[in-house]
From TrEMBL:
Homodimer. This is 6-phosphogluconate dehydrogenase, decarboxylating. It catalyses: 6-phospho-D-gluconate + NADP(+) = D-ribulose 5-phosphate + CO2 + NADPH. It comes from the Bacteria. It is an enzyme of class 1 (oxidoreductase). The keyword Glycosyltransferase does not apply. The gene is gndA. Pfam families: 6PGD (PF00393), NAD_binding_2 (PF03446). It comes from Microbacterium salsuginis. Pathway: Carbohydrate degradation; pentose phosphate pathway; D-ribulose 5-phosphate from D-glucose 6-phosphate (oxidative stage): step 3/3. Keywords: Gluconate utilization, NADP, Oxidoreductase, Pentose shunt. SUPFAM superfamilies: 6-phosphogluconate dehydrogenase C-terminal domain-like (SSF48179), NAD(P)-binding Rossmann-fold domains (SSF51735). One of its GO terms (molecular function) is phosphogluconate dehydrogenase (decarboxylating) activity. Residues 178-467 form the 6-phosphogluconate dehydrogenase C-terminal domain.
């Protein structure tokens, strides 16, 4: 046995992660794929890499030094279970199986529990950064036991992206914590992308600028507080010209956004936890709406706004969009961190929220300068219940007030959909409100279902005898 780490599953992500591992001093990487051709191809195209190929699980296990450590990089779902079963058969107590796919965290909790019974460690690990990240340095979000982190920590630190001198990896928490955090990362990614898309749409419709001209706007934004990978690549996509037609590529791409499910998981989980991730939800639903061409076709002739968007001062309008984008982005991240906080409480994970912001500063899709502000906020107040109430964000939200409201009302007046902008603002105003109409909802619930309510002026639970004489009685709390 000569390999200190192995990779199972050699599609693009797996091959790139294997190459990244092999490129680090001291690593020898065992590689295995269900069909032999992928393994042969990887070895043939990268003869320089320190690989040991295996063509059966037995060979794979035999090529690894103990504790054996293997990273599974297969499509999340049934394939993952099949590979885990096969590895459990050939591994021994103390060995470590890492799932680097986009697994649903509840699957990871289940798998960890089952594998732990064999004495083998199971680690669900979020890997972000796409193909390039896997090769050059991803952001890594491992869960699993403290014991596995002792072996894994140094290996993962050596391959992770580096942001401001620190590797973008931390032991997130036990069992499914890593995949949970990766899931929320993706939810935030959906929100960030939708907000950018809405900003682009408003600028295009409001100013008539071409995609290439809007690319310049984004490139400019990328030099300020919005600096991020997603803003950077947006400029690149907008600048791309289609070779076949000579048109901007964005104009020949079908306007129906795909999704592989992690955004939906983020929203479903938030619903179960009772966390209002409305910006992430709107972003996810906006993709769904776009992907129903038949519904969109029969709706095209519906009545709309009376006025078109008319922008007098183009520069001022673009600055408004920028501020609205920044404010809405703060809301999306605040909601995402709220979900992580709530998930940690529900599942008993000890998650350092500031450390999560740190490991997202490099390697991952949502990497942004802005994450430093989040780390600072949690450094100052580790128990901060609402991220956007940290002083830096309060200041940024203060600067954006006029712009944010103008953009939301302008888009509504002109009939331009801006679901993520407007839902972020509604969330913000909901949080701020002194009184919410939730009081009326409690009254309605009590009316039709005797669901009871609390009073502002005394303890206890109450019910009004709506179908009787409408006096109030003390009641059992039914929520
Ligand atoms: C990442 C990405 C990655 C993947 C998304 C795409 O962090 O590297 O999030 O995991 O590209 O899952 O998701 P959709 O296909 O759902 O947009």
């Amino acid at each position: 046995a000569t390999a200190n780490i192995g990779v199972v599953g050699l599609a693009v992500m797996g091959s790139n992660l294997a190459r990244n591992l092999a490129s680090r001093e001291g690593n020898t990487v065992a590689v295995f794929n269900r069909s032999r051709s992928k393994t042969d191809e990887l070895l043939a195209t990268h003869p320089e890499a320190n690989f040991v190929s295996a063509f059966s699980y037995e060979e794979f296990a035999a090529s690894l030094t103990t504790p054996r450590t293997a990273v599974i990089m297969v499509k999340a779902g049934k394939a993952t279970d099949a590979v885990i079963d096969a590895l459990v058969n050939v591994f021994e107590p103390g060995d470590i199986i890492v799932d680097g796919g986009n697994a649903l965290f509840t699957d990871t909790i289940r798998r960890e529990k089952a594998v732990r019974e064999t004495g083998i460690n199971f680690v669900g690990m979020g890997v972000s950064g796409g193909e390039e990240g896997a090769l050059l340095g991803p952001s890594l979000m491992p869960g699993g036991s403290d014991e596995s982190w002792i072996t894994l920590g140094p290996i993962l630190r050596s391959i992770a992206a580096v942001a401001e001198g620190e590797p973008c990896v931390t032991h997130v928490g036990h069992d499914g914590a890593g995949h949970f955090v990766k899931m929320v990362h993706n939810g935030i990614e959906y929100a960030d992308m939708q907000l950018i898309a809405e900003a682009y749409d408003l600028i295009r419709r409001g100013t008539g600028k071409s995609p290439a001209e809007i690319a310049d706007v984004f490139a400019e934004w990328n030099r300020g507080e919005l600096e991020s990978y997603l803003i950077e690549i947006t400029a690149e996509v907008l600048r791309q010209v289609d070779a076949a037609t000579g048109k901007p590529l964005v104009d020949v791409i079908v306007d129906q956004a795909g999704a592989k499910g992690t955004g939906a998981w983020t929203v479903q989980t938030a619903l179960s936890l009772g966390v209002p991730v409305s910006g992430i939800a709107e972003a996810t639903f906006a993709r769904s709406l776009s992907s129903h061409p038949e519904q969109r076709a029969i709706s095209r002739s519906l009545p709309g706004a009376e006025e078109d968007l008319e922008v007098e001062d183009v520069d001022a309008f673009i600055e408004d969009v920028r501020l609205a984008l920044y404010a809405s982005k703060i809301v999306a991240y605040s909601q995402g961190f709220d979900e992580i906080r709530a998930g940690a409480a529900e599942y008993g994970w000890n998650i350092d929220l500031g450390a999560i912001a740190k490991i997202w500063r490099g390697g991952c899709i949502i990497r942004a300068q802005f994450l430093n502000r989040i780390t600072e906020a949690y450094a100052e107040a580790p128990d901060l219940a609402v991220l956007l109430t940290a002083p830096y964000f309060v200041d940024a939200l203060g600067r954006a007030q006029g712009a944010w409201r103008r953009i939301v009302s302008t888009s509504a007046n002109a009939g331009i959909p801006a679901p993520a902008f407007s839902s972020s603002l509604a969330y913000y105003d909901g949080l701020r409100a002194e009184r919410l109409p939730a009081a009326l909802i409690q009254g309605q619930r009590d009316f039709f279902g005797a669901h009871t309510y609390k009073r502002i002026d005394k303890d206890g639970t109450f019910h009004t005898l709506w179908s009787g004489d409408r006096t109030e009685i003390e009641a059992e709390d039914t929520h």
